[in-house]
Amino acid sequence: MNILEQDILEVMAYFDMFNYPLSEREIRLFLPGDASGVAITRPLQQLVLKGRIFYIDKFYSLHDDPLLAKKRSIGNQRAETDLYAAYRISKFLFKFPFVRGISISGSLSKGFADRHSDIDYFIITAQGKLWIARTLLHLFKKLSYLYGAQHRYCMNYFLDEQALEIEEKNLFTAVETVTLLPMCGNGAQKEFFASNTWVQHYLPNCRFASDDSYYTGGSLKIKKGIEALFNNRIGDQLDSFFMKITAGRWDKKERKHELNTKGNRMGIICKKHCCKPNPAYFQVEILRKYHERISELKSSNIGEYYAD
């Protein structure tokens, strides 16, 4: 088995953890090596002939299971509707004080949604005002529980303009970063992407989303007026206060080992310029499982595999 076939299986092993079969184009995009000028149709056909992968309804999978392809197709169709809703919600959330950029993350950013899917938001805030912005947004989210729409407002990752570089650099964060779908912004996302070119080490064939179709919000006079009230020492103190309150509340949840509705351990990292899910409770587990799958491929006499 040649190196290209090995790389193809590594890509498929990663997305197989999410039960997500891939198209030929997607496999090419996520290859760990430079795929410019490289044809992968024949290697894919060879892997199918060898029984290593399966081709079902225009998708490639590690499993001979038509339901996976069907589920993906249905999920892709549903995502079109959810993306429209996400755009409308993003335009509204962008009007909140100190919000500088909103992107869609999670499964929806990869074009998939089912009836249990959340709409996840990756939010960039003004420098030094992350916790004011987050607190106001989450106070609004509390209202969404009254009409059962909380799953449409999952604002779980915040960075401010001073700390745009992702700290954890690995395959998981590279995939999540390069698949972000910007909805609204004033140039913050462009700066974010420029600060995270390290993803090219893991995904040399992927490109960041275009920055020419963002909703910029127009004048937003009320937003600017509120920001003017807190662009001072009082605002700085209030921001630190909100961070302290949030950190204390989540510290209690972590000590109790609380789980979310999906059964995953709950926890966030609270810093002055960053608020994000604790990587120890999901990201690390995903990477561990990925390494295990690569090891399984090796032990199945498929060939030499290695993951960073």
Layout of helices and strands, plus pairs?
Elements: H1 3-16, H2 24-29, H3 41-49, E1 54-56, E2 59-61, H4 66-93, E3 99-105, E4 120-125, H5 130-144, E5 154-160, H6 171-178, E6 181-185, H7 188-194, H8 199-202, H9 221-230, H10 233-255, E7 268-271, E8 274-277, H11 283-299
Parallel strand pairs: 4-5
Antiparallel strand pairs: 1-2, 3-4, 3-6, 5-8, 7-8
Notable characteristics:
six-stranded mixed sheet; 11 helices; Arc Repressor Mutant, subunit A; alpha+beta; 308 residues
Note down, in words, how this protein is organized.
With 308 residues, this protein is an alpha+beta fold. A 6-stranded mixed sheet has the order 6-3-4-5-8-7, with helices on one face. Strands 1-2 form a two-stranded antiparallel ribbon. A hairpin with a 2-residue loop joins strand 7 (268-271) and strand 8 (274-277). The chain folds into 2 domains: 3-64 and 286-299, Arc Repressor Mutant, subunit A (Orthogonal Bundle), CATH 1.10.10; 79-277, no CATH class. Helix 1 crosses helix 11 and helix 5 (130-144) crosses helix 10 (233-255). The chain has 11 helices and 8 strands.
Strand order of the largest sheet: 6-3-4-5-8-7
Proportion of β residues?
Answer: 5-15%
- Mean pLDDT across the residues is 91
Q: Kindly, what is the distance between the CA atoms of the first and last residues, rounded to a whole number of angstroms?
A: 20 Å
Query: How many domains make up the coordinates?
Result: 2
Coarse morphology: elongated
How large is the radius of gyration? 21 Å
Strand and helix order: HHHEEHEEHEHEHHHHEEH
Instruction: Please estimate the helix content.
Output: 40-55%
Q: Sheet with the most strands?
A: 6 strands, mixed
Number of H/I helices = 11
Low-pLDDT stretches: 302-308
The tally of strands reads: 8
Quickly give the structural class. alpha+beta
